[in-house]
Amino acid sequence: MKPAATVIYENPKERGVEWLEVKITVEAEAAEAVAEVLSRYAPQGVAVDLGAASAAEKVTVRAYLACDEALAGRQQQVEEGLWHLSQIWPMPAPVFTAVPEEDWTAAWRETLSVLHLGRRIVIKPSWRTYASNPARPDEVILELDPGQAFGTGLHPTTQLCVEALERLVRPGMRVLDLGTGTGILALAAAKLVSPVEVLAVDNDPNAIAVARRNLGMNDASAVVRLLHGSLGDVSGTYDLILANILAPVIIEMAQHGLGARLRTGGRLIASGILAEQQDEVVAALRQNGLELLETQQRGDWVALIAERARLV
Fold first, then answer.
1. Which residue has the higher pLDDT, 201 or 45?
2. Is 7 strand, coil or helix?
3. What is the distance between the alpha carbons of residues 218 and 181, in angstroms, rounded to a whole number?
4. What is 12-113's CATH topology?
5. Domain boundaries, the chain
6. Cα–Cα distance, 37 to 28 (Å, whole number)
7. 3 state DSSP class of 71
8. CA dihedral 205, 208, 214, 216 (to 10 degrees)
């Protein structure tokens, strides 16, 4: 049964309220899914507050709904969407708080913190300052602001991909990022080594728009090429392929030419896979010319590293 609504402001302007803050604290691996639900109704973006917690602990996700005549319907849709999500990841009911116009922007920005991924990657909102302590000349700082696309770096699958990418990417490689989302993995590849050539692909035009903005903020537009499409729109071969998507999508890609996009000896980093789905994904990869080299697991999620060992 869906939980009852908390508060709905039917006449927000009469109360001097301009925005309704939606706040919910969840396990880090659920944060991106929560952010995706909230982003449907909060076009200004969604903030993820790490606080003092590490990426493996609970985090708070916030969004701000405009207080207008459609507010009641949007709040109900948010509650219903989060309730359905709670059937997958148990989570508390969201908390709604009225916020005046003059306060909401500052409150929203204050929630965004710096995040460390892998050994070298640092994710920083554009308005935050960051200095490593002690100084780390090999750190790679990426500026990523909120947007309506997956890829904040909080999910275990993204963390596993970044860690594998740090080990595998080499200068001179051609890298293909399938399902790029915010472009976080494409950006990491472009900044970890030089020279490198990256193609970032997504079938969601909104994700492409967000990725394009992030590439611009990080001076990576000349290194990373964006393609609105899918695997079938990609030609040529690559030294390294990143596929942080979902197990059924990876299986389908394996059956429709994923191996052919890898050079012989090239590596695939595949994630977005639940541990219980691993055997099925590995079988699909093997049936299509890709041999498993390594498995990494964090919580319920695994990342697979495979190699194209023969012609497919």
1. 201
2. coil
3. 16
4. Alpha-Beta Plaits (3.30.70)
5. 12-113, 148-308
6. 15
7. helix
8. -110
Among 260, 256, 255, CA closest to 236: 260
Rounded to whole angstroms, the Cα distance separating 86 from 4 reads: 14
Give the CA count within 13 Å in the CB-facing half-sphere of 204.
15
2-20 pLDDT, tens per residue?
A: 333 333 333 344 444 578 8
pLDDT band at 105 (very low <50, low <70, confident <90, very high): low
Q: Give every CB contact of residue 106 below 8 A, 6+ residues apart in sequence.
A: none
Sheet containing 290-298: which strands, arranged edge to edge? Answer: 224-228, 197-202, 174-178, 238-244, 262-274, 301-308, 290-298
Q: 148-308 belongs to which homologous superfamily?
A: Vaccinia Virus protein VP39 (3.40.50.150)
Between CA 181 and CA 147 the distance in angstroms is 10
Sorted by sequence, the CB contacts under 8 Å of residue 93 that are 6+ apart come out as 3, 6, 24, 79, 82
Give the residue among 279, 303, 288, 229 at the shortest CA–CA distance from 257: 288
* Closest alpha carbon to 262 in 161, 121, 168: 168
Please state, in angstroms and rounded to a whole number, the distance separating the CA atoms of residues 210 and 195: 24
Residue type, 123: I
Q: Please tell me the distance from the alpha carbon of residue 177 to that of residue 18, in angstroms, as a whole number.
A: 40
What the block records as the tokens of 34 is: 């929560």
Q: Tokens 């916030």 — which residue?
A: 62
pTM of the entire predicted model: 0.72
